Amino acid sequence: MNELQKREDTLFERISTLIDLAHKRVKTTIDTTMVYTYYYIGQYIVEDEQQGEQRAQYGKAVLKNLSVRLTDKYGEGWSVETLKKCRFFYLTYKDNIIGSTMWTQSEEDKKMNLVYNVDPFQDKKDKQCLPNSPEISETMSRKYENNPTFTLSWSHYLVLMRIKNDDERRFYEIECQKQDWSVRQLKREYGASLYERLALSRDPKEVLRLSQEGHTIEKPSDIIKDPITLEFLGLQRDSSFSESNLESAIISKLQNFLLEMGKGFLFEARQKKFTFNEKHFYVDLVLYNRLLQCYVLVDLKADELSHQDLGQMQMYVNYYDRHVKEAFEKPTIGILLCKDKDDALVELTLPEDANVYATSYELCIPDKTLLQSKVKQWILEFEEQREEKKDFLDFPELRRDSHEVQYKESKEN
């Protein structure tokens, strides 16, 4: 038997052991168990490839032969493509998942025969089923300093591992766990560029938190996305429609709309009427956010935003704060959902501490590449401004020169 055949046999036996152990798991945990199995299969394949000096010559043949033998033993599901995905999964997550690093085994570990800390095969009976082969027993008894923790299904990870940006991938993984997203919901949110839209709606120094904590709701501005994506309404981008058409479409797809708005939103009313000085006013949509414990008023604008619209929303917010909200509730938030907005107009019209926000909406999925470039440019500008500020504070001569220039300009004027 040649060296290549021996290595193929060893690789086949090691992977067979993992699959056999995976099949022993309880039915309700099979998804998570298989994710771990795919991860370690990928690790075995990568380690085997790294040992070979002529990887390019035999690599494809090894996977093909391995696929045939696994299929003969376990049936469908072990194609070359599946094995490639296992390898890619391991390479994607070995360094990037929280708490995951490459394993290293010391001689002391070998002597102590330590098992890895996070063990997807926790039953003692499973560990007793390990083959007597010294090489396989040694492999399964490696100590991992920090091991990956997988909580989603393989279908989720097939979507996640296609996301190249590590921070973005971690964000969507956290949101899947927190919000119990289905694979369909994950695909929709990723396709609608949720990460980029939230990043662009935040202070640059808070963007890092998205990849560490997901979408956290702590203050009114945290619920704002720009733009809001309403592709599920089925309205044509180029067709003309009224605000009542837009409102009716939203009500008919209310669950989708609340999911798009974000975390913690509850629906209270449409065209909510209140009377002040014998005049009747109507708020298009009244929502409540249970995380912030406050009312959220939404006005829909099919045309360009005006300063009158902003003033009217400020009046709605003031009314709710003074006449509707309870003492334990937080200040009311106003959102103007408009086709086009002017940030300069919003800033000039509203006071700095206003709890009123304008955000645009899109009737189709936004251009992800464009949003990604905006985020990169935005963060780069922030970093440059921070460095300039740091230089200004670190070097007194820069501050002196700046003051001299300002003094000279003031005298000339």
How does this model look, in words?
With 413 residues, the protein is an alpha/beta fold. It folds into three domains: 3-140, no CATH class; 217-366, 3-Layer(aba) Sandwich (Trna Endonuclease, Chain: A, domain 1); 373-412. It has 18 helices and six strands. It has helices spanning 3-23, 30-51, 55-74, 80-93, 107-112, 124-128, 134-140, 154-160, 166-179, 183-191, 194-200, 207-213, 243-252, 254-261, 307-323, 343-349, 368-394, 396-412, and strands spanning 228-229, 265-276, 279-289, 294-304, 333-340, 356-362. β3 (279-289) and β4 form a beta hairpin. The longest helix has 27 residues, at 368-394. The model is unreliable at 98-121 and 123-145 (pLDDT under 50).
Q: In angstroms, what is the radius of gyration?
A: 29 Å
**Intertermini distance:** 93 Å
Please write the string of helix (H) and strand (E) elements: HHHHHHHHHHHHEHHEEEHEHEHH
Task: Give the oligomeric state.
Answer: single chain
Fraction of residues in β-strands: 5-15%
Overall structural class, as computed from helix and strand content, comes to alpha/beta
Helix proportion of residues, in percent?
Answer: 40-55%
Mean pLDDT: 78
Strand segment tally: 6
The largest β sheet comes out as: 6 strands, mixed
